[in-house]
Design a protein that fits this description.
Elements (H helix, E strand, L loop, with lengths): L2 H26 L6 H13 L4 H8 L3 H13 L3 E5 L7 E5 L1 H21 L5 H18 L5 H12 L1
Antiparallel strand pairs: 1-2
Helix pairs in contact: 1-5, 2-5, 3-4, 6-7
Pfam families: MarR_2
InterPro entries: HTH_MarR-typ, Tscrpt_reg_MarR-type_CS, WH-like_DNA-bd_sf, WH_DNA-bd_sf
Keywords: DNA-binding, Transcription, Transcription regulation
């Protein structure tokens, strides 16, 4: 890759992420949730009842911010807190029927946004892009995030 293209890599990745979030937020607002709430909802469903500490780690935000976010979502009937099986000091965040129903909607919205973003990109290019991104995630991941990168590989394959 030419040096000028490498110089642009960080900007391009950042811009794509920002534009994906913006487009997703625009389309997701009609469901009454912010992008942070959607991200939490997706994490709660995928992680199968994570603790608030795990959500903070996954979302890369402070535990107090997760607590407030969960408070708002619990008030809206999106999630509920349940005591941990072995540690009563810890709460698990559990999706409600309302959020499970919305999950399929949010997946469809995300698929539409991704499809729009990938318009004009051929199937071979899409596969190469996904493979390159998985390699980048693995290259930049520490042992602590090995689980995350293996999940990325599984999702990229499907």
């Amino acid at each position: 890759m030419k040096k000028t293209a490498i110089d642009q890599l960080g900007f391009l990745i950042h811009d794509v992420g920002r534009l994906l979030r913006r487009n997703f937020e625009k389309r997701g607002q009609e469901h009454g949730l912010s992008s942070a709430q959607w991200r939490l909802l997706v994490r709660v469903v995928r992680e199968q009842n994570p603790t608030q500490a795990r959500l903070a780690e996954l979302m890369e935000i402070e535990p107090i911010s997760v607590s407030r976010l969960v408070d708002r979502m619990e008030q809206g009937g999106w999630v509920k807190r349940c005591a941990h099986e072995t540690d009563r000091r810890v709460n698990r965040v559990v999706p409600t029927d309302k959020s499970l129903a919305a999950y399929s909607t949010i997946k469809a919205v995300a698929a539409d946004v991704f499809e729009e973003a990938l318009t004009g990109v051929g199937e071979d290019q899409r596969q190469a892009l996904m493979s390159a991104l998985v390699v980048m995630v693995n290259n930049l991941s520490s042992d602590e995030t090995a689980t995350t990168s293996s999940n990325v590989e599984k999702q990229a394959a499907s």
